[in-house]
């Protein structure tokens, strides 16, 4: 195997010494300009000290993804297989607790940068978004077949970051059967969540919000609940299961709302207690404020508003607007569950935005809980970017 050497500028080795897996193009002093995507490389400091073995990506700002920080452990099939096994074993407890939809591999979180593997019942869905994992695709599929011999494997490699890497999208069955348009996975042994593997967001569902959906269920007895950015209605289903008196699900997507409606039927919940509203959340919230409507629980789970550092300011305004409107709609002793899945939004900044929103709304409230991505979306200790989904539970006084 050729040893392609990359040298960094002086002083640019610090993050690699802490085992952060990204080598940015700007940190590189010397590289072979003919290196192709997927080449195995070894990265050295300016002084020539070994830093990591990794995989090269010529078009991405993240020029190398480090897989091994041990000089004697090369980036090979064995390394990838052993990381997949470790990742799966970390999720065993969650599966045993009655969760049939689980993230088995969480990319950088599991030291497999650019690889997602989600398990929905007997379907495994893989999404590859980096050269680093693309070159191991056959190895990944064969490891998953060994670990889950009864499962089918479907690929959803259609992410924006994949295009940035210069890789073409690829979706379809890799092994076994084709999934139906919508399937249902049991969450915490209780609620069936609709999943659209072939055409849904991400790999079909937002598994990261499992713990917060369960929390919404706990807060819903007798409540009037507003579920904003509902997607396929997960929070709303948990609220109904928890005894909500009425649930309004708001989303712009017809397909998502149709799946949410079906979810109510499949869970044998009362369709008379819920509404599905196809509307822009900003507009809907404004209208409800004008009408002086009040709710006992408002959920705000928007898509990623901050895609890049350049639009963080604009994103902050968006978060502040919906939180102000949401808080204005809450009855005394009611609660807000509010989230940001933008990696660029720190928990401190998010709290400040919600605090400003409360001031603007003239609402006094307290943080009575903090929420975050569920435990299968593991966080790698040296890679804070893997902690991306944060939330606050605010109780209005
Ligand atoms: N809470 C969901 C996931 C939400 S994903 C769950 O637990 O499964 C974000 C959703 O917001 C998507 O379904 C998308 O269609 C919707 N969306 C994005 N912008 C919107 C807007 N301005 N108004 C209403 N819905 C919007």
Layout of secondary structure:
Elements (H helix, E strand, L loop, with lengths): L3 E5 L5 H4 L4 E3 L3 E3 L9 E5 L5 E7 L5 E7 L8 H14 L1 H5 L4 E6 L8 E6 L2 E6 L2 H4 L2 H11 L4 E6 L2 H5 L5 E6 L7 E5 L3 E5 L14 H9 L5 E5 L5 H8 L4 E6 L2 H13 L7 E5 L2 H10 L4 E6 L11 H17 L1 E11 L6 H15 L3 E8 L17 E7 L1
Parallel strand pairs: 1-4, 9-10, 14-15, 14-17, 15-16, 17-18
Antiparallel strand pairs: 1-3, 2-6, 4-5, 5-6, 7-8, 8-9, 10-11, 12-13, 18-20, 19-20
Helix pairs in contact: 2-5, 7-8, 10-11, 11-12
The site of S-adenosyl-L-homocysteine has 19 residues, from helix 8, strand 15 and helix 10.
What do these coordinates show?
The chain is α/β, with parallel strands linked by helices and 397 residues long. It folds into 3 domains: 4-68, Archaeosine Trna-guanine Transglycosylase, Chain: A, domain 4, CATH 2.30.130.10; 77-175, 2-Layer Sandwich (Transcription Regulator spoIIAA); 206-396, Rossmann fold (3-Layer(aba) Sandwich), CATH 3.40.50. It is 29% helix and 30% strand. It contains 12 helices and 20 strands. The chain has helices at residues 14-17, 77-90, 92-96, 131-134, 137-147, 160-164, 210-218, 234-241, 254-266, 281-290, 312-328, 347-361; strands spanning 4-8, 22-24, 28-30, 40-44, 50-56, 62-68, 101-106, 115-120, 123-128, 152-157, 170-175, 183-187, 191-195, 224-228, 246-251, 274-278, 295-300, 330-340, 365-372, 390-396. S-adenosyl-L-homocysteine (SAH) binds at residues 206, 209, 213, 229-232, 234-235, 250-253, 256, 280-282, 301, 303.
Describe the structure in brief.
By secondary structure, the protein is of the alpha/beta class. It contains 12 helices and 20 strands.
């Amino acid at each position: 195997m050729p040893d392609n050497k990359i040298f960094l500028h002086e002083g640019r080795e610090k993050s690699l010494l802490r085992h952060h897996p990204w080598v940015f193009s700007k940190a590189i002093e010397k590289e072979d300009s003919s290196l192709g995507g997927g080449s195995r490389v070894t990265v050295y400091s300016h002084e020539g000290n070994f830093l990591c073995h990794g995989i090269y990506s010529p078009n991405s700002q993240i020029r190398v993804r480090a897989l091994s920080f041990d000089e004697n452990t090369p980036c090979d099939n064995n390394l990838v297989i052993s990381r997949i096994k470790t990742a799966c074993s970390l999720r065993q407890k969650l599966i045993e607790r009655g969760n049939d939809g689980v993230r088995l591999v969480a990319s950088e979180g599991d030291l497999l940068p650019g690889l997602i593997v989600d398990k929905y019942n007997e379907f495994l869905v893989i999404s590859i978004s980096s050269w680093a994992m693309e070159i191991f695709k056959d190895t990944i599929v064969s490891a998953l077949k060994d670990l889950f011999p009864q499962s089918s494997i479907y690929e959803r490699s259609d992410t924006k970051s994949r295009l940035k890497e210069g890789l073409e999208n690829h979706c379809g069955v890799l092994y076994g059967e084709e999934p139906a348009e919508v399937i249902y996975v049991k969450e915490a042994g209780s609620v069936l969540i609709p999943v659209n593997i072939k055409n849904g967001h991400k790999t079909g569902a937002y598994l990261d919000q499992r713990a917060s959906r369960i929390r919404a269920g706990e807060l819903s007895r007798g409540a009037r609940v507003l579920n904003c950015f509902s997607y396929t209605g997960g929070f709303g289903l948990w609220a109904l299961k928890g005894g909500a008196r009425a649930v309004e699900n708001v989303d712009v997507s017809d397909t998502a709302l149709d799946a949410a409606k079906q979810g109510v039927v499949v869970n044998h919940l009362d369709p008379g207690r819920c509404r599905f509203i196809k509307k822009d959340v900003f507009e809907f919230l404004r209208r409800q404020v004008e009408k002086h409507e009040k709710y006992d629980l408002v959920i705000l789970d928007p898509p990623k508003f901050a895609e890049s550092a350049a639009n963080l300011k604009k994103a902050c305004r968006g978060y502040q607007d919906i939180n102000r409107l949401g808080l204005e709609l809450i009855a005394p002793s009611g609660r807000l569950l509010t989230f940001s899945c933008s990696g660029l939004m720190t928990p401190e900044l998010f709290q400040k935005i919600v605090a400003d929103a409360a001031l603007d709304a003239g609402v006094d409230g307290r943080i009575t809980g903090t929420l975050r991505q569920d435990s299968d979306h593991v966080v790698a200790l040296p890679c804070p970017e893997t902690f991306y989904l944060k939330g606050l539970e605010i109780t209005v006084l």
